[in-house]
Structures are given as structure tokens and as C-alpha cells.
Amino acid sequence: MLLRPIRFFGGKGGVGKTTLAAGYALHRARRGERTLVVSTDPAHSLGDVFGVPLGERPLAVVPGLWAAEVSGEAQAARRVAEIVADAERTLPREVLPAVRRHLARAVESPGTVESALLDAVTDLVEQVGRDWDRLVVDSAPTGHMLRLLSLPALLTPWIEGLARQRESVRGVDRLAAGLVGRADEEPDPLLERLRARRERMAGLVERLRADAEVHLVLVPERLPLAETVRAAEQLTGGGLRLGTVVVNRVVPAGETGLLARRREQQEEVLARVAERFGREGVARVPLLPGALTSTAELTEVADLVSDL
Ligand SMILES: Nc1ncnc2c1ncn2[C@@H]1O[C@H](COP(=O)(O)OP(=O)(O)O)[C@@H](O)[C@H]1O
Ligand SMILES: [Mg+2]
Fold first, then answer.
1. Which residues form the ArsA/GET3 Anion-transporting ATPase-like domain (predicted)?
2. How large is the angle between the packed helices 189-211 and 142-179, nearest 10 degrees?
């Protein structure tokens, strides 16, 4: 397997995550890696970059490169539909409307949507090394991405607590049953589900720590730098590895007039980025003239991020 085959592109909205993730994925595909680029940003725009509508199922966009857009909402709705179907088979008809109402509310709650999205990402991560050589994730804006990446670590102790509680309840049940002469050894589906979920989350955390890198993207302005520093601290605090930081839309040296003044303002931020992220490495991508939607332009971006 490749070294660090899983790459996340994170940063504020509009900094260039989608463009750079698509360019990087194209670069890896051109190097002969079976590459999947997937967007987890609810404001999907990956399909626009390739000029095709995308869905959850990976679609071949150029040779060696597949693309998909996953949505927590769609995942959550599908999962709830399964639960409703189960409930219809097993529960008394009178309680079904109440169950449906409860589930409809649950599907809209941010926790459900995020954990469903995490499930979809886990599926894809598990495919790396088998179906894909490389997975590139065009992440949602910073806060969203951080929550998603820290969710497995947060969920694991919580699930463990639930499982422990469940086990001790079962222990008391068994003891009571034993006293009246009937040892209850039936399998517990809830406990099984909790255990399976705990294993899955622990596996994801381990996999991300070993095989993933997060590329934070920023434009050289003062405000995003502070946000990038905060994001970096949170990610590394969660055991994730920071990859090369990408500064996008850097005005090329040697411009005149308005652009020259912009460049001067950018210099100060660029110096601070170099100082803060020297260890991780910093890549610069210039401000490009086009709309960045043609294959030729994407190839140009691919060449610019080939060192990540
Ligand atoms: N280096 C660049 N030069 C010029 N335009 C860029 C550059 N990088 C991205 N863009 C443009 O900026 C806009 C936002 O980029 P996008 O990749 O969609 O950002 P994000 O995914 O972070 O919201 C898009 O129109 C994109 O074509
Ligand atoms: Mg985007």
C-alpha cells in the first residue's frame, strides 16, 4: 500500500479545497494510482469541476479517477427508512405513527446527519488498499471537518460506556434468572450493535492516524491564518497528521499596479505561514486567471499540487 494514501483537504469555505482536491486527485490518477475523490461538503461543487453530476456511487470521470459526492442527509434518511421497515415488521401498528414522527425528527438532527456521514466516510476508508490506491477527501469547511474527524474518538468512549452499562444490566438479569433457576444466555442484539459500532470507530481512528494526512488550505489573508492555526492544533491534538499546508491564490511576484499591492499584503502572511508551518511544509498555488472548470485548467492545478 502507498504511504499515507488518504488525504483530506480542509479549510474555510471558498479557499479552494474542491479545486485543489480535484487537481491533486487528477495528478495521482495520472501517475497510475486508482484514485477516488469524494466530497463531503454539503455545498457540493466537485461535480461542477468535472462537468458531470455526481452522486454517492463513484463515477469514472477520467481514466484512473473516480469521483463521488456523499451526503449525511441521504445516508441518514436511508438508515431511518431501514429502521422504519424493521419497526413495521415488529411493532404494534398503533405505535407506528409515533415511531415515524420520532425518527423523522432524528433524521434532521445534526448529530444523526454527521454520524451518517462518518459512516459513509468509514466505508470509503475501509476500501482503501483494496478498491482504491488513493482516497482524496474534499472536506466540508473547517468546523464541520474537525467535528467529523474528531467524532470517532469522541464516540468510542461513549459507546464503551453504553456497552458497559448494558453488560452490567445483563449481569444483574442473569444473576436474577440464575436465582430462580433459569440462566438467560440469549444473544443481546443491542449489545452486539454497540460492540460492532465500537470496533468500527476504533478501526477508523487507527486507520486515520496511520494512513491519513490533512492538508489545510488557506488564502494569504490575516483572518484565515488564525483559523488555520486553530484547526491544526485541534487535528494534531486528535492524533491526526498534518500534511503540507497549501496557500492558494498567491499573487505571482513581478506583477504591477493593484496586484503588486496585493502581493505586498500577502507577503506578511506568507512569512508567518512559513514560520508556523515550516515543519509540515508549505506549498504555494498561484492566483490563476481562468474559471478552472476545463480539463486543461485542472491539469494545470494538478501540476501545481504534484508535490503534496
Ligand atoms: N488558485 C486559484 N486561482 C484562481 N481561482 C481559484 C483558485 N483556486 C480556486 N479558485 C476558484 O475559487 C472558487 C472557490 O474555489 P473552491 O475550490 O470551490 O473552494 P472551496 O471548495 O474551498 O469552497 C472557485 O470558483 C475556483 O475556481
Ligand atoms: Mg468546495
1. 8-305
2. 150
Quickly tell me which residue has 454517492 as its cell.
Answer: 56
What pLDDT score was predicted for residue 116? 83
Query: Is the shortest distance between the CB of 45 and ligand 1 below 6 Å?
Result: yes
Ligand 1 centroid from CA 13, angstroms: 9
Identity of the residue numbered 195: R
Helix segments in the chain, DSSP class H = 17-30, 46-50, 72-90, 96-108, 110-127, 142-179, 189-211, 222-237, 257-276, 295-304
Q: Is 16 in the pocket of ligand 1 (CB under 6 A)?
A: yes
Angle at 6 between CA 57 and CA 194, to 5 degrees: 70
pLDDT at residue 239, rounded to an integer: 87
Domains of the chain: 6-304 (3.40.50.300)
Please give the pLDDT value at position 90.
76
Q: Which atom of ligand 1 approaches the CA of 292 most closely?
A: 27
CA dist., res. 95 & res. 31, Å (int): 57
pLDDT of residue 224: 74
Which residue's alpha carbon is at the smallest distance from atom 25 of ligand 1?
A: 291
Residues, Cβ < 5 Å to ion ligand 2: 17-18, 41, 45
Distance CA 129, CA 139 (A): 21
Q: What pLDDT is attached to residue 61?
A: 97
**Which residues does the chain have with pLDDT short of 50?**
none
